[in-house]
Amino acid sequence: MLRYENIELLNLLYGLIPIAFLIIYYRKWKDNALKSFGETLTIKGLMPSFSKSRENIKFSLLILCILTLIIGISNPQIGTKMEEVKREGVDLMIALDLSNSMLAEDIKPNRLERARQAISRLIDKLEGDRIGLIVFAGDAYVQLPITTDYSAAKLFLSTVNTNIIPTQGTAIGKAISLSMRSFDMENGQNKAIIIITDGENHEEDAIEQTKLAAEKGVFVHTLGMGLAKGGPIPVYSKYGNNTGFRKDKEGNTVISKLNEQMLQEIATAGKGTYVRANNTQAGLSALFAEINKMEKKEIGTMVFTDYKDRFQLFLSIALLLLFFDLVLLSRKNKWNN
Fold first, then answer.
1. Cβ contacts of residue 151 below 8 Å, gap of 6+?
2. How many CA atoms lie within 13 A of 269 on its CB side?
3. Domains of the chain with CATH codes
4. pLDDT tens per residue, range 31-88
5. Helix (H, G, I), strand (E, B) or coil at 51
6. Which of 49, 52, 143, 192 has its CA at 20 to 30 Å from residue 237's CA atom?
7. Between vectors from CA 225 to CA 224 and to CA 228, what angle results, nearest 5°?
8. What is the model's pTM?
9. 16: alpha, beta or left, given left = phi > 0 and alpha = psi -120 to 50?
10. Is 117 helix (H, G, I), strand (E, B) or coil?
11. Which of 67, 76, 63, 77 is nearest to 12 (CA)?
């Protein structure tokens, strides 16, 4: 079993992308500057010790050094001992809407990001409960099977975006059905589903699936993301730049509005609670209070109880790569051709 003691530091890996682009840009600028002095053969004659392959190697060593350094400071740990641990809690499945309308910015920074922040805060409050993550748009998928590994839950949560589901729509019924299939209905734990969505373009079987869940003793709560006035849906290029807003066939800007009535009906049918998010309160704290009212039963779970740090290995590799980067000159010489 692998885990990271400081898993949030892995986000620094995203910094490798701009670093790589800056280095590539600088090298292209330098190449263009050299070309202004003459032809390629002339430049090579003036700079006989220059080696482009060495520059490529040093660039690779630098990127690998930063990569292993980041992994090292996040402290990967290997589980070495597994024991059965008794926990008291409930089984909780969160179904998160990833349709394009969740990019609307009527709540800041947008509906999806606010939902992820709220789920992360909920995970921080869990003690002994098991949690799973379903993502849905036009179809539903298991992003994280139900688990007590809260670090893994946060890691999987950080990866979700509207691009991972190809079919658009808001298939709430499919999300509820998949959540039910993901539960272990034989373990005797109390169970709940939290649907986080704006409720737009829902399919008609949502209420039916909710009633089926309620008949099996599973509570269905809903968290509405968005404001009553709604907001336009941004369109982004593949480079992440905002290129405008979605328009209908007549060329009018589409305004995405929260379908509050539908989410209230789902919560009522599921014997749960409906909460509407807004710019100041994400609402999961209210739902967490409802979850805490549920009877928490003891269950034995096999977990790793002893972990060994492995940061030393990655920091050693980073230092070794840095050493090679310093020793390897970008120019040829009599010792190193």
1. 3, 4, 7
2. 17
3. 2-75+310-327 (no CATH), 84-300 (3.40.50.410)
4. 777 666 656 556 565 555 556 777 788 888 888 999 999 999 998 888 666 665 566 7
5. coil
6. 143
7. 85
8. 0.66
9. alpha
10. helix
11. 67
